[in-house]
Amino acid sequence: MTALAPTTPWVAGKKDDYRVCGVTTLKVDMHTERLIIANAVMAVVTLLLGGIAALLIALTRWQAIHLLDAKWFYSLLTIHGIDMLVAWIVFFEMAGLHFGSTALLNARHAAPKLAWFGFILMVIGGLMVNVVVLLDANSIVTFTAYVPMKAHPLFYLSYILFAVGALLQVITFFINIVVAKREKRFEGSLPLAAFGLMTAAILAVYTLLQGAAAIVPAFFWSLGMIANYDPGIYRNFFWGFGHPAQQVNLAAMVAIWYMLAQMTLGIRPLNEKFSRLAFILYLFFINLGSAHHLLVDPGMTFAWKAVNTSYAMYLAVLGSMMHAFSIPAAMEVAQRAKGFTKGLFGWLRNAPWGEPGFGGLVMSMILFGWIGGVTGVTIGTEQINMLAHNTLRLPGHFHATVVGGTTTAFMAFTYYVIPLIFRKELKLKKWAQWQPYVFGGGTALVSLGMITSGLQGVARRNWDITFAGVVPGTVDLTLAIFGIGAIIAVIGGIMYLTVVLVSVFTGPRMEAGQMLLIGGSENPLLESTKLTDEQMEHPKNQPKGTLVLVFAFLAWFAIYYLSNWWLLGRTWFIR
């Protein structure tokens, strides 16, 4: 770490200024730096609130403990859903959008006042909804807040303020891109990571507008200004918001995967057009996935369900599989170019497993793809969805994608934001090394415990599963796996928060001196620019090991998918 770098005005005589990062060599706009810090702090605050609720909910759904009474369970379930599925992730994504639209382009922030206004609205909305749910019993309506359940008007107003604030910050992303292009801060196409963030921003606009279509009428309905609100219309618009919000996470998470791989291994994408096409597939087809929340809804027509479960949905799956090949393959080529060419997996054995960015990247990809992706595609088919949707299998799926995939990736990226943006030394590095594996391992047990409990018929969202007397005794084992996994994941969350808080609040501000946090003094980010076409195309450097991993994944995918159809066939016998 070295003394703080001086700042330089973008234009002589103006207040807007930037600093040059000695590690990345990027120009960091000072408005951007402050916006990233503010959004990141609020992300951590909401993660803390949602994490506390997560532990208490898990210890209640673990039937052998059954900690909370029904009122507290549903209150915390509402808070947990909003804080973890929306607030923590969206605050973090806003930080990413500010970074992607300025620092990655060596450009200035063109609309800082609008961005700060949006941030303040998000803070008010994000905190207010927690208070409303805790103080008002009528606002215990869970994350979905399905009509005709009617919450306090301030509950809906909280959603609206948060969404409007997020939309304003997203708009500044587009303004920054346009201004950067006009001022010739970059030439040609956007860098790949910025392109991925652009995909997330476009999906965010669609998502937030759908959310407004659902929540704004609900707000006026709660005030008595609208007499009736059709529950079917609400559900349709809500799931145009609720599930696509996770698609925004997906695009942002993949962009961060590319950045983590470049920062820790020095990758160069094998084929940028290939990766960009995968992002474009998300734009056109990913939102069909949200239909699985409505396949059991009697209000939707057969034609609607047929379109939304059509083969077009698999084009979005194809996009994810393209990334799932492209990133590990680029990692393998980069490692082989360094001389790790022994056997199929010598490159993997010699990877920097102690570097938190690499550990987080690998855990995120495994949990997202091998558990979350496979289970998501399976329950996206209408016939299986009819049985699986209202069981714990569904939260088992999205805990693998959102918690195991997105949250693990965001946590890993935070460790690099601390020295590069906060300009603080990362403390408790041993904790940071182990944290992705502890958190990821716990999350894997949570998902598997939920999925196997759901397979035995345990319903989702139910405070007590014994009321009907139909669940088998074996669920005690699978719910114990879920509960133990939750405790381990919360320990991983505490490790993350401790590392972040100790690093941010102790020690002086200093410039970072190196890219890697643990693994040495080299700078993979800059080394990646030196990878030549000859090295990339050399026969010894081809990604043979990745190809084997891809076929192993496809085999697992086929086994799980076909097993579900076999189980479906065992459900209804024709005699």
Secondary structure elements and pairings:
Layout: E1 8-9, E2 17-20, E3 27-29, H1 30-61, H2 70-101, H3 112-135, H4 153-182, H5 192-222, H6 231-242, H7 244-265, H8 272-285, H9 302-308, H10 313-337, H11 346-349, H12 356-379, H13 382-388, H14 393-422, H15 429-455, H16 475-505, H17 524-527, H18 533-537, H19 544-569
Antiparallel strand pairs: 1-2, 2-3
Helix pairs in contact: 1-2, 1-3, 1-16, 2-3, 2-4, 2-5, 2-7, 2-14, 3-4, 4-5, 5-6, 5-7, 5-8, 7-10, 7-12, 7-14, 8-10, 10-12, 10-19, 12-14, 12-15, 12-19, 14-15, 14-16, 15-16
The 3D shape can be described as: globular
With strands numbered from the N-terminus, the spatial order across the biggest sheet is 1-2-3
Proportion of residues in β-strands: under 5%
Radius of gyration: 23 Å
Helix run count: 19
Structural class: mainly alpha
Report the end-to-end length measured between terminal Cα atoms: 75 Å
Question: Mind summarizing the main beta sheet?
Answer: 3 strands, antiparallel
Classify the helix fraction into a percent range: 55-70%
State the total count of DSSP E strands: 3
* Secondary-structure element order, N to C: EEEHHHHHHHHHHHHHHHHHHH
